[in-house]
């Protein structure tokens, strides 16, 4: 795959941009180019809802007014992780389409909501159809990127993202998509560069957007094992948007990577309080167990399994976490068989890297490491250098009888994030590999 490119002038602008003022020892304020901190009772989306409602209640109703309110509701869904906001948004979009049956903005917003509900195939199909109506609409290309990436259609996602750059170079909606793809293709440094460009192009009034970008920068720094930089970015996001559930999750991951399991547990408990979804409960249970509260963790795991099974057939589910729980925590032959069945069903619908990785690991845990190697090789071909993915690929390769390939994967994991858990485990795995003969 060719990496997405943007103009040399923009690259230089990104490189010369004023550095983000970070949370931590150097500062206790949000980035100088970012919006001022928001109060928990007032957020960009909640303010937009009030403005849109006022506009709708004054004068004649119009499709545009209903779309404005729908958009505010959908943004509130991301702020709160509350799916009920998508329902409210859809109600407004129905009203908009009653007034203007072919309204482009309303149809585009419906696709946004489909993505929010994880209806990725439907969103992909609808976005492609909408794109035919307006080949120069950059937002529609963004929807294609998002849906295609979730389905594992990385080439289509890359093509759509390149169109975004061609049409609107340097805009946050384009640069965030470039960042996502570069990460998947294994270019963490380039991904960070693109996300920084997105941050410096974000309007001061878009506090939640800025917090999301800072959170993803924290994730990217954690991907390459720089927990200090990751903590600074996540901390800045939490100053900008207090109790932001995405930032709390990444902060928990950072503390866990540092071995501070109690601090990780505290952050993840707060995230679950803010966004009570099964996948968040699973991460809290893992951190609670690591912190030594075994009995409490077991209660959480049981509650998680029950909740995850209840929504397992929904398109928005915690099936990857359920698969991990069965393969790595329970570990019985029966649990591993259930995991393999569940993830195999998912893999029939999508071929993204996380799905292929989970399928390969389940196949490996079920004793079919040769098939698992074939599966994980498809994920590796995309290019991701994620330390966990590469470490597990090494474990699978070793079990499949490919020690040289195993060492190669361990090396990538170790080089990507040497201080991470999987980087350290990769180093230990390399030490255990049989020495090669001089003839080799």
UniProtKB/TrEMBL annotation:
<feature type="signal peptide">
    <location>
        <begin position="1"/>
        <end position="29"/>
    </location>
</feature>
<dbReference type="InterPro" id="IPR011990">
    <property type="entry name" value="TPR-like_helical_dom_sf"/>
</dbReference>
<dbReference type="InterPro" id="IPR019734">
    <property type="entry name" value="TPR_rpt"/>
</dbReference>
<protein>
    <recommendedName>
        <fullName>Tetratricopeptide repeat protein</fullName>
    </recommendedName>
</protein>
<keyword id="KW-0732">Signal</keyword>
């Amino acid at each position: 795959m060719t990496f997405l490119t943007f103009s040399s002038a923009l690259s230089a602008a990104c490189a010369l941009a004023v550095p983000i003022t970070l949370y931590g020892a150097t500062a206790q304020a949000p980035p100088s180019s970012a919006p001022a901190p928001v109060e928990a009772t007032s957020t960009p989306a909640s303010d937009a809802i009030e403005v849109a409602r006022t506009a709708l209640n004054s004068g004649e109703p119009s499709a545009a007014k209903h779309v404005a309110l729908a958009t505010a509701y959908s943004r509130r869904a991301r702020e709160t992780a509350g799916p009920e906001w998508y329902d409210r948004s859809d109600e407004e979009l129905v009203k908009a389409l009653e007034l203007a049956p072919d309204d482009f903005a309303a149809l585009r917003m419906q696709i946004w909501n489909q993505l929010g509900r994880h209806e990725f195939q439907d969103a992909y199909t609808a976005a492609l159809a909408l794109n035919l109506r307006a080949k120069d609409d950059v937002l529609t290309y963004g929807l294609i990127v998002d849906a295609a990436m979730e389905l594992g259609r990385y080439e289509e996602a890359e093509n759509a993202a390149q169109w975004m750059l061609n049409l609107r170079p340097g805009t946050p909606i384009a640069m965030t998509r470039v960042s996502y793809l570069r990460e998947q293709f294994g270019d963490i440094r380039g991904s960070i560069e693109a996300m920084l460009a997105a941050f410096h192009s974000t309007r001061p009034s878009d506090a939640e957007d800025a917090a999301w970008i800072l959170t993803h920068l924290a994730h990217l720094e954690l991907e390459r094992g720089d927990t200090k930089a990751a903590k600074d970015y996540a901390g800045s996001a939490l100053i900008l948007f207090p109790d932001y559930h995405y930032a709390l999750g990444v902060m928990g991951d950072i503390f866990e990577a540092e071995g501070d399991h109690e601090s990780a547990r505290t952050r993840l408990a707060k995230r679950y309080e803010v966004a009570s979804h099964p996948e968040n409960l699973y991460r809290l249970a893992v951190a609670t167990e690591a912190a030594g509260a075994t009995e409490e963790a077991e209660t959480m795991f049981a509650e998680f399994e029950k909740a995850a099974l209840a929504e397992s057939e929904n398109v928005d589910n915690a099936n990857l976490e359920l698969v991990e729980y069965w393969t790595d925590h329970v570990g019985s032959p029966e649990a591993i068989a259930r995991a393999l069945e569940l993830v195999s069903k998912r893999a029939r619908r999508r071929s993204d890297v996380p799905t292929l990785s989970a399928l390969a690991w389940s196949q490996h845990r079920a004793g079919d490491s040769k098939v698992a190697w074939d599966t994980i090789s498809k994920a590796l071909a995309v290019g991701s250098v994620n330390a966990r993915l590469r470490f597990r690929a090494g474990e699978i390769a070793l079990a499949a009888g490919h020690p040289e390939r195993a060492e190669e994967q361990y090396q990538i994991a170790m080089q990507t994030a040497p201080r991470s858990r999987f980087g350290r485990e990769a180093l230990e795995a390399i030490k255990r590999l049989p020495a090669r003969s001089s003839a080799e």
